[in-house]
Amino acid sequence: MKKILIILLAFIINSILIAPGQCFLKGKNEKKIQKYPPSCTVVGELECPKGLLPTCPKQYKPSCVFVGTMQLPACLADNADNTFFSYNLDTINCKKK
Predict the structure, then answer these.
(1) String of b and e for 36-67 (b: at least 16 CB within 10 Å)?
(2) What confidence tens digit (pLDDT) does each residue in 63-90 have?
């Protein structure tokens, strides 16, 4: 009985003292940035929600790449001799026109 009472008391202290502070701090320090990752269609074209366009950093261009057996949206950087390309999956995003 003592163990159950100690566990119950610890839970109550945690929920009253610690959890509300985390909730209040989270809202003040976070900037709400909505990211809309594009998807690839069956034919390998990029698709964003209506009113948005796929974007990448300046040296890259948005495209779909094959990774294993899947097509994923990525930012492509072509090499000067066109024999090798690098892609970055985490920098592609959909932004307003």
Answers:
(1) eebbbeeeeebebeeeeebbbeeebebbbbee
(2) 898 888 888 998 888 666 655 567 888 8
